[in-house]
Design a protein that fits this description.
This protein is mainly beta and 1013 residues long. Strand 34 (753-765) and strand 35 (773-790) form a beta hairpin. It is found in: Cell outer membrane.
Length: 1013
C-alpha cells in the first residue's frame, strides 16, 4: 500500500490565504504513551508496546532509518507516542505532550520567551533533545522537513495538522546520515493518517485554578474515498484561543493571586577574602537605582523618592541601608551603605518600584490551522498525492512594565521638579541630581505582538515497483514552504526622544523641551516625577503609535527522492538497501522599521511595511533608537545538495545464538556556503537466544549546518569607547585605547558543527514469563565540536594577538587608515564544544483486569533520563569548561521522569501521570560555605551560602466516558497539587523562574467532548 511508505506532504500551489479552520488534536489526559523500548518500529496500537510483533508481509516505517521493509529493527532508540496517548493528555497543542518526554530538555513553548522583546520566539513551539537546543533537533512531518518559523530554522509545531496525527516518533540518537543537518540531538517525526475516512471533532475548554488562561479549542477533520477507493480526500481545521496569564505590575504581586514570587536574587557582597560567602541568596531584593515614580540616586539629596502625586518622601531602603549622599566625583557616589554595591541591591524595604514581576507568565495566543490532502491511487500499490497546510499563530506578551531608567540627570531648574526640591538644591549648592525611575506614569506597558503565518505545499508520488524481480519502495516529492513573521511592539519609548523630553525649561511662560533642536522637531516635554500621565502629544512624541516592527519572510524549497528494497538474500536473511538524493534551498529576508534599523542600507525602504524615516536630528540615523526591539534589515540564502545510502546486513540467524544485523549509512552533503561534509552511522542489533532480550548499539557522525541567522545576521553597529588595543606591534601613533565601531554581523565562513553520537543499550521485550512487560536501558554519549558561538569584541582582538588564533584576525581592523574608523566585526565562530552523556530507562507493563474481577485493561509506563555530564567549553584560552548537568536554572537536571497509569474499559478510562525532576544547583561552579569557613572567592569558583535549587513533582489526573459510540466526554487536571515553581535568583529580580523547566501557571482544568462519525 502506498500509504505505508515513509512519506509525504505538500505541493507547490498558490500561497497566502490567511489562516483558518480547525485541525489536529490532543485531548484526554496524560502524555507519553511511550510505546516500547524496542523503539525503532512501527507505531503500535495504544494498547501494545512499540515492538509488538508486526505482520511480516507488511512494510514498516522506521524513523531512525530510511530502510522500509518488513521485519527490520533499527539500532537507534526511538520513543513512540500514539494518537490515543495524545488524546489522553488533552493538551491544546500536541507540542506540550511530546515535550514532556524526559529526553526532550530545553524545548520552547508559550510559557518561555515571554520576557523577550526582540527574539521573535514568543509562542514558538519547538523541540530540544538532550538539552542541545532547538537548532540541534530535527523535526519532520511525515518524514519531510518543515519551513522554519524563525531565522534559526526551527519549525513551529503548533502549525502542524494535529487531529490527523497517528503517532509521533522521537529518535533519541544522531540521525544526520539518514535525514541530514540538525539531527544532532535526534529527530522528532510526526506521522499523519493519510487514509482517514469519516468525520471527527473535538471541543475543549480550560481554565486555571486562579481564573486565568481561559482556553477554547475546536478541531475537526473529515475524509472520504471516491472512485472505488482510488481517490482519497481529507481536510482538517483547528482554532485555539488561549487567554494566557498576564503579567503582574510592580512590586511582588503576581497575576491571579499567585503568591510564589519573592524577588529572589543573588546579593553580591563583592568581598572575597573575609571568610564569608561572596554571594547570598535572599528574597525580597530591592533595586536602589529607581522607584516606581522616581528616586534621587546620588548627591546630597540621595534617598528622596516621589509618590504618585509627585510629593517627595524619604525612601525606605532595605537592609537598613543609608544613602551615601556623597558629592559627584566621590567614589561612593550613588552607593547605599548596608546594601550591596555590586548589582545595586538591598534586602527588603520599599519594593513598590520593582519591575521583575511584570513579565507575562504565558503568552496570549490565537491559532488557526487548515490542512488538506488528496491522494489518487494509480494502482493498488502507487499513489500520487498533494497536501496543503496553511496556518497562523498570533501571540501577545508583556516583557516588562514601563521602561526602567537609571543614571538619568535632571536639572534642579526643571519646572517639573517640586519647589521643595529646587530649594533643597540651592541649599546643597547643586544644579542637578542623579535620578532613576520605573516610569510608572506611562499609561500602558510594553507589549509585543508576534504573528507567524505558514504556507506549506507538497506534491509527490509514493508506492512500490517491481524491478528485476525485487519490490522497491519509492517516494518522490517537492515541497515549497513559506513563513511570514511580523512582530509589532506597542507602548515603547524612543530613547533619544525620551531623553530630550524629560529635560524641560520654562520659556515664555510655558514648559517646553530644553533642547532647541528637539523643540523645533516636535519635542513635547514630559514629567517623570510622580505618576501624572504624559499628555497625548507628549506620549505620541516619545512612543510613536506604530512602534518597532519587523517583517520576515522565509522560504524553503525541497526536492526529495528515495527508494528502498531488498535486492538479495544471504544466509541470515534479506539484505535491505535505501538510497536517495535531496536538494534544498533556504532563503530569508527581514526588514526592520527605520527607527530601529536606521537608513541608508538599501533595504529599509524596500516594502510598503516601512514608512519614510522621520526628519528628526534627535534620532540616530544608524538606528537602535528604541528602548528595546531595535530590529535590523538583512537577507541571505543558501542551497544544499546531498545523497545518501543505507544498508542493513543480517549476518546471524541461529536457534542457539539468536539473530543479528549490521546497519550502516553514509551521506555526502554539499552546502553552497561551506562546501562538502560527510556523515555516517554504523550500528547493529542482536536478538540474543535469551527470551525477549535484545542488544543494540550505534555510533554516528552528525552535523548541524549554520543557519540563516548565523550566516547572514542583520548588521547592528554600536560605538564602543575605551576599547583596549592589545596589538603588541601596533604602529606608532595608534593609541592603546580607542573608540571603535562594533558591527554585529553574520559570518558566511562558518562551517558545520561536527558531532560524534554513540548509544548502546539492552531491551527486554515481552518475555514468555511476563508477556505484557517491556523495558530498555540505553547509554548515550554526544560530543559536538566546532560549536557555533559568539565572542565579544575584546575577546576577538585578544585571542588574535595574544593567543595567535589567526581565524579571528580578519574580523577587525584597529588601524584602517585616514577617514575610516577602527572597527571590530562581532561574529559567530566555530570555537566551542559540547559534551554530554547519560542514559535513558523505559518500561511498560500491560495486563487485563479480568483476573481480579474488574473490566478493562491496565497499563503502566515510565521513562527516565539521567544526564551525567553536560560540559560546554567556550574554546577561549584561559577559561574553564562549565558543567551544567544538574543545574536547574538551565535545561539539564540530573534526573527527569515521566510515568503514566491508565485504566481503560469499553465505557470509560482513568489516567494518572507523574512528572518529576531532581533537585539541582544554581551553578555547579559555586563553592558553598558559611560565614567564617569560606575559602577565597574567585571568578571561576565564587563562594555562596546556598547552592540548592529544588526539583519539582507534578501530578496530573484525567478521564473520559463514552456517552454513546460516537460521543466521548473527558476531563483533565494538570498540576493537581498546584505545585509552585522554585526561584532562579540569577535573573536578578526578573521573573525569577526557569519557565522552561518549572510549571508557572499552577493547577489547570480542561474539559471537552469528542465526536466521531
Amino acid at each position: 500500500m502506498a500509504n505505508t511508505i515513509s512519506e509525504d506532504d505538500h505541493n507547490a500551489l498558490p500561497r497566502r490565504a490567511r489562516t483558518t479552520l480547525l485541525t489536529a488534536s490532543l485531548a484526554s489526559l496524560i502524555a507519553v504513551a511511550i510505546a516500547s523500548p524496542a523503539a525503532a518500529q512501527t507505531a503500535p496500537p495504544a494498547t501494545l508496546p512499540a515492538d509488538a510483533p508486526q505482520a511480516a508481509e507488511q512494510d514498516i516505517v522506521v524513523t531512525g532509518s530510511r530502510i522500509t521493509t518488513g521485519g527490520f529493527t533499527a539500532p537507534t532508540p526511538t520513543q513512540t507516542i500514539g494518537a490515543a496517548d495524545i488524546a489522553r493528555n488533552a493538551e491544546p497543542n500536541v507540542f506540550t505532550t511530546i515535550a514532556q518526554l524526559p529526553s526532550l530538555q530545553g524545548s520552547s513553548g508559550v510559557t518561555t520567551g515571554t520576557n523577550s522583546t526582540s527574539s521573535g520566539q514568543q509562542g514558538l513551539s519547538s523541540f530540544s533533545l538532550r538539552g542541545l537546543g532547538t537548532i540541534r533537533t530535527l523535526t519532520l512531518l511525515d518524514g519531510q522537513r518543515v519551513v522554519g518559523a524563525n531565522v534559526t530554522g526551527v519549525p513551529d509545531i503548533s502549525l502542524f495538522p494535529q487531529l490527523l496525527i497517528k503517532r509521533v516518533d522521537v529518535v533519541t540518537g544522531g540521525a544526520s546520515a539518514s535525514y541530514g543537518s540538525d539531527a544532532v540531538g535526534g529527530v522528532v517525526n510526526f506521522i499523519t493518517d493519510k487514509r482517514f475516512e469519516g468525520f471527527k471533532a473535538n471541543l475543549q475548554g480550560g481554565i486555571t485554578t486562579y481564573g486565568d488562561n481561559k482556553q477554547v479549542l475546536f478541531q475537526a477533520a473529515a475524509g472520504r474515498a471516491f472512485f472505488n477507493d482510488r481517490l482519497h480526500v481529507e481536510v482538517s481545521g483547528e482554532y485555539d484561543h488561549e487567554d494566557g496569564v498576564p503579567a503582574g505590575g510592580f512590586g511582588e504581586q503576581l497575576a491571579g493571586g499567585r503568591d510564589w514570587y519573592r524577588t529572589t536574587t543573588f546579593l553580591n557582597r563583592n568581598i572575597k577574602t573575609d571568610g564569608s560567602p561572596q554571594y547570598l541568596v535572599r528574597d525580597h531584593a530591592q533595586a536602589y537605582q529607581y522607584t516606581k515614580y522616581g528616586l534621587i540616586t546620588g548627591g546630597p539629596l540621595q534617598g528622596t523618592a516621589f509618590d504618585v502625586n509627585g510629593k517627595p518622601f524619604q525612601f525606605q531602603y532595605g537592609s537598613g541601608g543609608v544613602p551615601s549622599k556623597a558629592l559627584p566625583g566621590n567614589p561612593a557616589f550613588g552607593l547605599v551603605s548596608g546594601c550591596y554595591a555590586q548589582g545595586g541591591f538591598c534586602e527588603g524595604g520599599d519594593l513598590s518600584g520593582n519591575v521583575g514581576i511584570g513579565t507575562t507568565l504565558q503568552s496570549r495566543l490565537d491559532r488557526y490551522n487548515g490542512y488538506g490532502r488528496i491522494g489518487f491511487d494509480i494502482d493498488p500499490d502507487n499513489e500520487l498525492y498533494a497536501t496543503v497546510n496553511i496556518a497562523q499563530v498570533d501571540t501577545m506578551n508583556q516583557p516588562n512594565p514601563g521602561a526602567t531608567k537609571s543614571g538619568l540627570t535632571l536639572q534642579c531648574s526643571n519646572p517639573f521638579v517640586p519647589t521643595t526640591i529646587q530649594d533643597a538644591c540651592r541649599t546643597a549648592g547643586i544644579t542637578s541630581f542623579q535620578f532613576g525611575s520605573s516610569n510608572g506614569q506611562l499609561p500602558k506597558n510594553i507589549t509585543v505582538y508576534p504573528t507567524r503565518k505558514q504556507y506549506r505545499f507538497v506534491g509527490g508520488a509514493a508506492g512500490k515497483l517491481q524491478v528485476f524481480g525485487t519490490r522497491w519502495n519509492y517516494d518522490v516529492s517537492y515541497e515549497h514552504g513559506e513563513n511570514i513573521t511580523d512582530i509589532h511592539v506597542k507602548n515603547i519609548t524612543l530613547t533619544p526622544r525620551y531623553n530630550a523630553a524629560i529635560q524641560a525649561i520654562s520659556l515664555g511662560g510655558q514648559i517646553v523641551c530644553a533642547d532647541p533642536i528637539a523643540r523645533a522637531n516636535g519635542c513635547v516635554p514630559i514629567n517623570i516625577i510622580g505618576g501624572a500621565a504624559p499628555s497625548a502629544a507628549a506620549l505620541e512624541y516619545i512612543e510613536p503609535g506604530n512602534g518597532p516592527y519587523q517583517h520576515t519572510r522565509q522560504t524553503q524549497d525541497a526536492f526529495n527522492f528515495s527508494f528502498s528494497g531488498s535486492p538479495l538474500s544471504l544466509w541470515a536473511g534479506p539484505v535491505s538497501v535505501a538510497a536517495g538524493a535531496e536538494y534544498r534551498n533556504e532563503f530569508y529576508h527581514v526588514i526592520g522599521d527605520p527607527y530601529g534599523n536606521g537608513i541608508g542600507d538599501g533595504i529599509s525602504t524596500e516594502t510598503p511595511y516601512t514608512s519614510a524615516y522621520p526628519a528628526d536630528p534627535v534620532l540616530n540615523t544608524a538606528g537602535t533608537n528604541w528602548y528595546a526591539g531595535n530590529y535590523h534589515a538583512g537577507r541571505g540564502s543558501y542551497h544544499v545538495a546531498e545523497g545518501f545510502l543505507e544498508v542493513n546486513l543480517p549476518f546471524l540467524k541461529s536457534e542457539t545464538l539468536g539473530s543479528a544485523n549490521l546497519n550502516v549509512a553514509g551521506r555526502v552533503t554539499n552546502y553552497s556556503t561551506s562546501g562538502t561534509v560527510y556523515t555516517w552511522k554504523i550500528g547493529g542489533t542482536w536478538d540474543t537466544p535469551i527470551d525477549g532480550v535484545r542488544l543494540r548499539a550505534v555510533t554516528s557522525r552528525d552535523v548541524r549546518a549554520p543557519n540563516l541567522s548565523e550566516l547572514f545576521a542583520a548588521p547592528i553597529t554600536t560605538t564602543i569607547p575605551n576599547f583596549s588595543n592589545s596589538d603588541p606591534n601596533r604602529p606608532n601613533g595608534v593609541p592603546a585605547t580607542l573608540t571603535i565601531l562594533q558591527n554585529a554581523i553574520g559570518n558566511t565562513a562558518l562551517k558545520p558543527e561536527i558531532a560524534r553520537n554513540t548509544t548502546a543499550g539492552i531491551v527486554l521485550s515481552r518475555p514468555h514469563w511476563l508477556p505484557g512487560f517491556s523495558a530498555s536501558f540505553d547509554y548515550y554519549r554526544i560530543k559536538v565540536n566546532g560549536v557555533i558561538s559568539t565572542l565579544n569584541a575584546q575577546q576577538e582582538v585578544d585571542l588574535c594577538y595574544l593567543n595567535n588564533i589567526t581565524s579571528l584576525c580578519g574580523a577587525f581592523n584597529l588601524n584602517p587608515g585616514a577617514g575610516t574608523p577602527p572597527y571590530v566585526n562581532l561574529q559567530a565562530f566555530n570555537l566551542a564544544s559540547i559534551f554530554t552523556d547519560g542514559f535513558d530507562i523505559e518500561a511498560s507493563y500491560q495486563f487485563n483486569l479480568g483476573d481480579v474481577g474488574l473490566p478493562g485493561r491496565f497499563e503502566l509506563r515510565g521513562l527516565a533520563t539521567n544526564v551525567k555530564n553536560f560540559i560546554t567549553d567556550s574554546g577561549v584560552p584561559g577559561t574553564i569548561p562549565t558543567q551544567s548537568a544538574g543545574v536547574n536554572a538551565g535545561n539539564t537536571p540530573h534526573w527527569k521522569l515521566l510515568a503514566t497509569e491508565n485504566w481503560t474499559t469499553d465505557r470509560f478510562s482513568l489516567s494518572v501521570q507523574q512528572r518529576w525532576f531532581s533537585d539541582g544547583a544554581y551553578n555547579n561552579e559555586y563553592v558553598v560555605c558559611s560565614a567564617g569557613n569560606c575559602p577565597v572567592s574567585t571568578t571561576q569558583h565564587p563562594t555562596i551560602d546556598n547552592n540548592t535549587m529544588p526539583g519539582a513533582f507534578y501530578l496530573d489526573l484525567g478521564g473520559s466516558f463514552n456517552v454513546t459510540q460516537k460521543l466521548n466526554v473527558y476531563f483533565k487536571v494538570d498540576n493537581l497539587l498546584d505545585h509552585d515553581p522554585a526561584p532562579s535568583p540569577q535573573t536578578n529580580t526578573g521573573i525569577d523562574v526557569n519557565q522552561g523547566l518549572y510549571d508557572t501557571l499552577g493547577r489547570l482544568f480542561r474539559v471537552g467532548a469528542r465526536f466521531n462519525f
